[in-house]
Amino acid sequence: MLELSSIAVDHGSQRALWDVSLEVGERELVGLLGANGAGKSTTLGAIIGLYPVAAGSVRYSGEEIGSRSTSRNVAAGISLVPEGRRLFGEMQVEENLAMGAYAPAARPGVARGLERVYALFPILAQKRRQNAGELSGGQQQMVAIGRALMSNPKLLLLDEPFIGVAPMLVEEILRVLRDIAAGGVTMLLVEQNIHRALDFVERAYVIENGRTVLEGTREALVGNPEFNNKFLGLD
Ligand SMILES: Nc1ncnc2c1ncn2[C@@H]1O[C@H](COP(=O)(O)OP(=O)(O)OP(=O)(O)O)[C@@H](O)[C@H]1O
Ligand SMILES: [Mg+2]
User: Fold this and answer.
1) Which atom of ligand 1 is nearest to the CA of 34?
2) pLDDT digits over 9-24, tens only?
3) Is 228 helix (H, G, I), strand (E, B) or coil?
4) How many domains, in total, are found in the chain?
5) To the nearest 5 percent, what fractions of the chain are helix, strand and coil?
6) How far apart are CA 150 and CA 230, in angstroms?
7) How many C-beta atoms lie closer than 10 Å to residue 129's C-beta?
8) Does residue 142 fall inside a structural domain?
9) CA-nearest residue, atom 6 of ligand 1
10) CATH number of the domain that 46 lies in?
11) 64-122 pLDDT, tens per residue?
12) Which ligand is nearest to the CA of 45?
């Protein structure tokens, strides 16, 4: 479904990604793990078209998308839950959710999209008229995930969705993400909490200094001494 081959990405004159390769199959749950500044967010940004790809290729559903706009990628079924949620705190929950359906193709489906999000996160239905900034961290994360679902994605990119979320709500959000995955949505999850990530995904990549350096199934990674050395003490 998604294939990155040796991509490079620059932030201004600074190279952030040097050589990132990864593949995500249809309906797969894949992790992207790595330390602060390794290039995880930049990789997700390059996939959805926030950053142009300076070298290498990004293919999605058989098409080269390395220089395609974000709106085209969203219309094609890619959606991002950005790092730090990026909500409009002074706007209502429902207004924030509706922002996720800005693509012309998604607009007729706003009512249906809201219904789906409220069914997944009933607390958001109760708080639909409240300003997003008044919600707890976990509830705000639900809004960010809900907004990403409004475009009815086939591939959901999640950038550290559990930061600032209370443990009870982490469990609830994980349950909902599993439901969404069971409904056929493919996911690429960026996480710094290795145990939590490996609980959720089937396979993961490790990124270091802008390069993918390790890849494997959950079992293979857990049994790999190199992986254990890298992440010992990181959690
Ligand atoms: N908008 C930007 N402008 C300039 N440099 C940036 C920008 N965003 C990221 N960088 C740099 O690119 C590199 C990769 O950053 P990135 O945010 O992708 O890492 P990350 O793995 O997501 O880190 P974190 O775990 O802290 O979120 C870092 O050196 C970072 O300082
Ligand atoms: Mg990041």
Assistant:
1) 21
2) 999 999 999 999 999 9
3) helix
4) 1
5) 40, 25, 35
6) 37
7) 9
8) no
9) 11
10) 3.40.50.300
11) 999 899 999 999 999 999 999 999 999 999 999 999 987 666 666 899 999 999 999 99
12) 1
